[in-house]
Amino acid sequence: MEDKKFPIYKFFATWDQDNYENNGSSFYKMYKEEPTVEQLENDLNNYKLNIINKQNEEKHPVTDWKEIAYKYIEHESWVLHWFNHMTYNQFETDTEVEESFSNFIKRKKKQNMQNGHSATEMNYSMPYNPDKPFYCFMGADESWRWKICRCEHCVAQGKITIDH
After folding, report:
1. Range of the domain at 29
2. Are residues 66 and 84 in the same domain?
3. 63 and 118, same structural domain?
4. 121 and 86 in a common domain
5. Within a domain: residue 1?
6. Across residues 149-160, what is the average pLDDT?
7. Domain check: are 83 and 65 in the same one?
8. What is the average per-residue pLDDT within 102-115?
9. Which pLDDT belongs to residue 1?
10. Is 0.70 surpassed by the pTM of this model?
11. What is the 3-state secondary structure (H, E, C) of the chain?
12. What's the whole-number mean pLDDT along residues 29-49?
């Protein structure tokens, strides 16, 4: 069975604030269907509002936006979040989940090697090339770390998560 692949976008921002220059953040978002420009712009605006609210709570308001944008990354079966990966639930068994995730890891290791890195470590001696990125696994390449999450929050959103 071939894994279904979904569109993935990266949202990113850099800004200055009180006593902090070039602060930044980013995250990846997987969409179940192709997003519209309106949907992407709305998600970008929500991202910006979340940053503003967080900085105001911490008493470090944003003073200057350097960049805030999104870009298409790829169509893929799993998307990286902070020490977990997520996809839309299309599996009947945990064995199918693990097989799909294992295939994903193999693809990304192969991609890393094709891009001049080792399977699991970035080649820091190479000059930066955005066309040859390194895929960071955050522990996902170690199957003993995998813990499938089917909590009510994930199930309600039609998602499945592997924590690692």
Report:
1. 6-75
2. no
3. no
4. yes
5. no
6. 93
7. no
8. 96
9. 62
10. yes
11. CCCCCEEEEEEEEEEEECCEEEEEEEEEEECCCCCCHHHHHHHHHHHHHHHHHHHHHCCCCEEEEEEEEEEEEEEECCEEECCEEEEECCCCCHHHHHHHHHHHHHHHHHHHHHCCCCCCCCCCCCCCCCCCCCCCCCCCCCHHHCEEECCHHHHHCCEEEEEC
12. 97
Residue 13 lies in a domain: yes
| Closest among 141, 146, 145 to 162, alpha carbons compared | 146
71 and 102 inside one domain = no
Pairing type for strands 147-149 and 6-17 reads: unpaired
- Token output for 77: 């079966």
Amino acid at residue number 152 = E
Q: Compute the distance between CA of residue 8 and CA of residue 29 in angstroms, rounded to an integer.
A: 6
Instruction: Quote the number of domains for the chain.
Output: 2
- For tokens 């990266």, what's the residue? 10
Q: Is the pLDDT of residue 61 over 90?
A: no
Q: Tell me which of 75, 101, 124 is where a domain ends.
A: 75
Q: Based on the domain organization, do 14 and 58 belong to the same domain?
A: yes
Taking only the tens place, the pLDDT of each residue in 15-30 is 998 878 889 999 999 9
Inter-CA distances, 43 with 10, 79, 94, 149, 158, Å: 11, 17, 31, 25, 19
pLDDT of residue 153: 93
